[in-house]
Design goal:
Blueprint: H1 3-15, E1 24-28, H2 33-48, E2 53-60, H3 67-79, E3 84-89, H4 100-115, E4 121-123, H5 128-140, H6 145-148, E5 154-156, E6 162-164, H7 172-181, H8 198-213, H9 217-246, E7 253-254, H10 256-259, H11 263-276, H12 284-295, E8 304-306, E9 311-314, E10 318-322, E11 332-333, E12 338-340, E13 346-348, E14 360-363, E15 370-372, E16 379-381, H13 382-388, E17 401-404, E18 407-411, E19 415-416, E20 420-422, E21 425-426, E22 436-438
Parallel strand pairs: 1-2, 1-4, 2-3, 4-6
Antiparallel strand pairs: 5-6, 7-10, 8-9, 9-10, 11-14, 12-13, 13-22, 14-17, 15-16, 17-18, 18-19, 20-21
Helix pairs in contact: 1-2, 2-7, 5-8, 5-9, 9-11
């Protein structure tokens, strides 16, 4: 492929995104010929399209002894274009049974999401050869149509961000040819030849042998991946419609769907529900645990199937996702209207509560005393009010509570509670605006 042909293909890919003026286009730089080609193509595109924002990011997780030198070389090449750059070291936590490569990839994507605007497009240098290798890796894992679809040319990312792979149909040979014609500088990572790494084994040992025997084998793999993607898209659209009609709340999976369908359809519906919650999909074994336990679950059974970073629970004829990952904030006295609760979100309280020498405290501790609510008869314990409100047991101790002058006056999800506070004035007659609690996602009840 001629270099202008590659540039035309790149432009077509970006034009399909329906970009808006001021939108951020970000080149993810790894240092290889593919990402350096992406940067060069993007800079050519910038000359004709100055209406967008442009950024190049390189994150060094120091897996290779020469990574610091590589970063310097990559940074010098990027800055020669006069583009805004971010070059950072990256600490990569590696969990049990997680490969170094997978941990590095997750950490890179997480940090790049933090460094980019909400509607940014992240441009990746993955190409035809990468797509073929990905298909084989998914095949090895026993994946269905979704996994065998491999990588999408354009896919949603975090928030309104998108990932874009303009070179996905281009061979590595054509990319190298372009890089040489453009006199680009890139890094040759010697670990790419280590066949102990699965992808490298496929790249150097398996795929060349298959294409030597069947020259069109690679094209057949790409066609199969595309057909799997189309099949998955149709299936998802049909399942989402069925799920939407049965749901009362987007965050819940109604168990009535399980009783109406076969085991295969049950698993498919559960997958599409979890995908809609933006969680990683469970393994087949985990999905089967969820399906089987849900069929016999009761509110007293305390069903909990642990998945990757979240668990699936049962409450009131529905399944819920619980992604609590940390400890609750410590109790604290409030002197300001806005409180940052870390991963538990933010809380904004009315200024009136901070006047008249009031002592205002934030707590997550459930009181055993009985409380009254404005306009409601009788007094109940807080746990009973929470139960009546339909809040699951595991979330009842995760509600921010305001304590004014030693008395509970407000609970997230329940609103104001009533008692005499100032000059025998009933608290509910003060008509204060509700505090505003915005969860960061640690509370699965946030979507109700």
């Amino acid at each position: 492929m001629m270099k202008d042909g590659l540039y035309d293909l790149f432009c077509e890919s970006l034009e399909s995104l329906a970009l808006k003026p001021g939108q951020q286009l970000v080149a993810a730089l790894g240092g290889g010929a593919d990402s350096q080609t992406i940067l060069d193509l993007l800079m050519r595109f910038r000359q004709q399209n100055p209406q967008y924002q442009y950024l190049a990011i390189h994150l060094d997780h120091s897996f290779h002894p020469s990574s610091a030198d590589w970063s310097s070389t990559i940074e010098h090449a990027a800055k020669s274009y006069g583009v805004k750059t971010v070059f950072e070291p990256l600490n990569v936590p590696i969990e049990n049974r997680q490969s170094k490569e997978a941990a590095g990839r997750e950490s890179r994507y997480r940090r790049m999401a933090e460094l980019t605007e909400d509607d940014a497009v992240l441009l990746l240098g993955q190409h035809r050869n990468d797509q073929i290798e990905t298909f084989f890796l998914q095949l090895k894992r026993g994946s269905g149509p979704k996994g065998l679809s491999s990588m999408a040319a354009i896919q949603p990312w975090v928030g309104s961000r998108r990932l874009c792979r303009p070179l996905l149909s281009v061979s590595k040979e054509d990319i190298l040819s372009y890089a040489q014609q453009q006199k680009l500088t890139w890094i040759e990572d010697d670990t790419n030849y280590d066949t102990r790494i699965e992808r490298n084994f496929l790249r150097h040992k398996v795929v060349p042998l298959l294409e030597q025997r069947w020259p069109q084998f690679g094209n057949s793999v790409l066609r199969s991946a595309k057909l799997c993607a189309e099949q998955q898209q149709v299936m998802d659209e049909l399942l989402q419609e069925k799920l939407y009609k049965a749901q009362k709340h987007k965050s819940h999976f109604p168990l009535s769907l399980l009783s109406e369908h076969s085991a295969a359809m049950q698993r498919a519906l559960l997958r599409v529900w979890l995908q809609g919650q933006e969680y990683s999909l469970p393994s087949y074994e985990q999905l089967e645990q969820i399906r089987l336990q849900a069929q016999s679950a009761t509110d007293d059974s305390q069903m909990q199937v642990q998945c990757d970073g979240y668990s699936v629970r049962y409450f009131q004829y529905a399944l819920w996702c619980d992604n609590n990952t940390g400890q609750l904030p410590a109790d604290c006295w409030l002197a300001e209207a806005n409180v940052n609760l870390g991963e538990w979100g933010t809380l904004s309280v009315p200024d009136a509560l901070l006047t008249n020498n009031n002592e205002l405290r934030l707590t997550f501790s459930l009181t055993s005393e009985k409380l009254a609510k404005p306009g409601r008869q009788g007094r109940k314990k807080l746990k009973d009010w929470l139960k009546q409100a339909g809040i699951p047991p595991w979330l009842r101790a995760r509600r921010p509570i305001l304590e004014l002058n030693g008395k509970y006056v407000w609970v997230a999800g329940l609103g104001w509670f009533s008692y005499q506070v100032i000059e025998k004035t009933e608290f509910d007659s003060l008509q204060l605006p509700e505090p505003d609690w915005v969860s960061s996602g640690a509370d699965s009840y946030r979507q109700l």
